[in-house]
Each structure stands twice: as structure tokens, then as C-alpha cells.
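anyone else get weird line breaks when pasting these?? whatever heres mine. first is seq + C-alpha cells for prot A
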Amino acid sequence: MTDRSDNTSRYARQARHLLANAAKTSGEEVSTATGSKKVGLEKTGEMVWGAFILAIKAAGAKRGKHLKSTAAIKWGKDHGLIAGRDDVAAVNAARALHGRFYEVDMEYDEFLVAKDAVEVLVDKILIEVGL
């Protein structure tokens, strides 16, 4: 079994890796018969969502807690990692990006704003716990 510091750094490293990959894939344009369109947004949204959950899991691991993904957001709120209006808005943005994988109802500009908000929260969580 891995120890707490292994999980902490593994989750944090993977969160940063997902954000880096998301930055590379968001908004790739492909030509279509009717012009061009952005592709990969669903995949990018899932990467950002995953990075968000992994950041909370890293914080939990640092404090000796193994979190399941489904409980991570509540744990993050309960432990002060998600506090204030901007953080709550970023959580809602993360949920919207995750939901976008199943339902495409977000314009590209909205997608970028949501992605940026979640990235700021992920960085904040990792910095707050010294990762």
C-alpha cells in the first residue's frame, strides 16, 4: 500500500498533468463542410473536472484521508478548501464542464470562462495545502 505522501504527490501531479493536457486540447479547430468548429471540448471538460477532484483528493491524502470522488466536493467544503462566492462558482463551473460531456449546451466562450475558473480553484487548493 502506498503511504500518504505518495498519494498526495501522485494526485497533485496528475491534477497538474490533466490541466496541462486540457490547455492543449481546448478549442482545437477542424474544417467541416459548413466552415470550422471547435472539437475536443467534452474531453477537455472532463480533464478539468478530473483535475479538480484530484486536487481535493490530494488535499485529503495530505491530511490522511482517502476520499472517493463522489465525496470529495463535500469534504473540500467542510474543510475550508472551497469557500466564498468565487470558489462556489468554480465548483458549479466544474459541474457544468463535467455535464457538458453528456449534454452539449455551453457556448465556447462560456466553456473557456468555466475552464479558467476551475483552473484557478485547482491551483488555489494545491497551493493552500503546499503542493
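and prot B, same format (seq, then C-alpha cells)
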Amino acid sequence: MSQVLSQFLKIVFLFLTIVSTVHARGYENIFNVVEFSHVQSVNIDGVSVFYHGHSEDETNRSLHDIYKMSQKLKGYYPESKICKDITLHVYSIDFDILNNREVSNFLSWSSWGDSDIDAVYDARYSPSNTSAIFISTRHAARLKPNILAHEVTHYWQHTRCMSQSEDEAREFAELYITGKT
């Protein structure tokens, strides 16, 4: 019996090693083709948030928006409590790189009907105790907060052990942009 258990554990370990390697390669593909000229971190209510961008102005504006979104999400989800301590990394990348299926091969493209996307929240393939938002650089500064608010809502849902709701993420983004939160 112990020999069967030993074989089973070896198979499970091998599977986890292969899956971890494949997932790490997914981000590695992006990092091999994207350079971030400005990286900055802030602490928002005890959570580390890193923004990997292309200018100091973009980075400061985005981190300020994430801070404001986090404050507004407290009112949107008043009963929610943090259940996972997860560092957030936000990566500003070119639309064509984000939507390159070979580069962003860690994403489940079938989830979006194999359509191109403007941003994505990922906690499945990010390193342990981290999550990531990949956001396209193709949008004007006035449109980016809407997209970022949507993805930050997914981060909020994840760190509060809530189900991921596209409807709520859309609604919060709309309320945030219109100032109704």
C-alpha cells in the first residue's frame, strides 16, 4: 500500500511541477517582450500594490486611481472582509502583446469567445500570494480608469473570497466613472 501511495505522490508532485513551470512561462513570455521603464509600489490599507508602467505620470495616476477605487469598493461591498493577503501587480502592456495568443498563452482565451481583450485580472497563474492585472495601453487616459476599476473589482472579489462577478465589476466601474459610488 505504501508503494502505491508513494507512486501517487510522485505523480501529483510531477504534475504540479509541470503545471507551475508552464504557468511561470506564460508570464515569462510577456516579460521577455515588454520593458517597464517605471515601477512603483504603494501600500493601500495594508496591501502592497505594484504598478509596472512606462512613465512616472502614468504610474502615479494609476496608483492614485487604484487607491480611490479601493476606498469606493469599501462602500460598494460594505460587509466584505479580507480573507486572502495577496499582493497586486498591475502591468501596463501593449494591446497587441496582451492579445498575442502565443505570448499570453496562460490565459483562457475561450472564456472570452477567443475575442481580444483590453485587460484581465489573473490570480490563477500568478506567483504564490500575488495576483496580476494586465491592462492595455491602447486607451486614452480618460478611458483607462473604467477598465482598471473593472479589474480592481475582480481583485477585491478575489481577496474577499467572493465569487467573480462580471456584472458587479461592470456596475462598479460605471458607478466609479460617473461618481455615483
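btw re prot B: Residues 2-178 form a domain with the Glutaredoxin fold (CATH 3.40.30). Confidence is low (pLDDT under 50) at residues 12-24.
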